[in-house]
Amino acid sequence: MLVSQLTEEQLTDEQIQRLLFDGIVDGGQQADCILVLGSRKAVEYRVPVAVTAYRAGRAPRLLMSGGAMEPIPEAEWMRQKAVELGVPDENILVESQSRNTVENMLYSLVTLQRAFWLNRVHSILLVTTACHMRRSLHIARYLFPAHIKVYPCPALDRNTRPDNWMLTEKGRQRATAEAQNIIRCVKNGVFPDFAI
Q1: What is the pTM of this model?
Q2: Which site in 84, 94, 121, 123 is 20 to 30 Å from 114, CA atoms measured?
Q3: Under a CB-based contact definition with an 8 Å cutoff, are residues 6 and 35 in contact?
Q4: Which of 111, 179, 101, 110 is closest to 142 using CA atoms?
Q5: What's the DSSP call for residue 4?
């Protein structure tokens, strides 16, 4: 079934599970940079996963992306946490202009261009929560140049993991909202339709 054939208001648990989580696994790939998407809880869930990948030698640099929080952007909080966890500051890039996932990708491209030249970037390890990964991957793969491979490195949060999103009202609401967001993105042409 194609995503465009799904109805936002009538999603089943099986459709949400397939839409958000099926096939989203960390394959252990190495990359030129680890891109960490911001959120209010990124320092709790996403940054530790990115730092673990960095320490494992999977990429030489981190790029923190997110400008939504005030007065200090998400990316700056994330940079500070990564430094606390032992990443040298000189190995962290900061993009603090973006306000949503599409802008994360667009502003990150500019940051990568300025730091490396895009023609020298061949792969990105993308870190966000597992629930947010499918939409983030599709946006990145649609907006990034074709020569840049984007690999998932999902972080597990408390309420929207593949094994527990359906167990609490909060998890169910967040997973359903994210699934609906993916459907809207496909129907609005933010990225191409795909099968689940």
Answers
A1: 0.96
A2: 84
A3: no
A4: 101
A5: G
Report the interhelical angle of 130-143 vs 101-116 (nearest 10°).
60
| CATH fit for domain 25-156, picks 3.40.50.620, 3.40.50.980, 3.50.50.60, 3.40.1010.10 | 3.40.50.620
Give the Cα separation of 140 and 136 in Å (integer): 6
Rounded mean pLDDT, 169-182: 98
User: Using CA atoms, how far apart are residues 57 and 36, in angstroms rounded to an integer?
Assistant: 16
Query: What is the pLDDT at residue 68?
Result: 79
Residue count of the chain, please give it: 196
Closest by CA position to 77, among listed 43, 126, 122, 114: 43
73-129 pLDDT per residue, tens: 999 999 999 999 999 999 999 999 999 999 999 999 999 999 999 999 999 999 999
- Interval 5-14: pLDDT, tens: 999 999 999 9
Residue 115 CB neighbours (<10 A) = 14
